[in-house]
Amino acid sequence: METKNIMIVGVGGQGSLLASKLLGHLLLSQGYDVKVSEVHGMSQRGGSVVTYVRYGDRVFSPVIDRGEADYIVSFELLEAARWLPWLKKDGIIVTNTQQIDPMPVITGAMDYPAELAEKLGATGARIDAFDCLSLAEQAGSVKAVNIVLLGRLSGYFDIPEEKWMASLKANVPPKFLELNERAFHMGRKAGQ
Prior knowledge:
This protein is of the alpha/beta class. It has eight helices and six strands; from the N terminus they run βαβββαβααβαααα.
């Protein structure tokens, strides 16, 4: 199998590292060689964070170059736009429609780009954009956006749902497992 590439992009504190850990665990359990690399920006200050997950028969490097990502999982629209050049021509962006204002917008130096999801789609990229924050709130916590996104992403993989649940169970503390299972199912159902 050729190497597949997933980028998880967002803002510090959104749970992208747990999402990459879950994906890595899941893909290892399916017998793939997996490499995960975390690249932190100013993550402690709400800055951009990106994680690379690469899997296949044999993976030599954890780094994804421009034009190589099969999937970009984005916690926020502007981050999806920022990392768009890394998407393959036939790649898919699974993104939360939430907008988190970067510092230039907060200070009034710039405006948040209007109709960003539509603009991303106009580039020819396949965009799967939906309101993960509302689903996470319904599941029981705004912090579950990461798991809602993974639920949605799971619909693009030919991996049984119980395998995703096993990775959740292996990586999430027991007291948060039920909430995260709900969040996963809500994200998965939103894509059907």
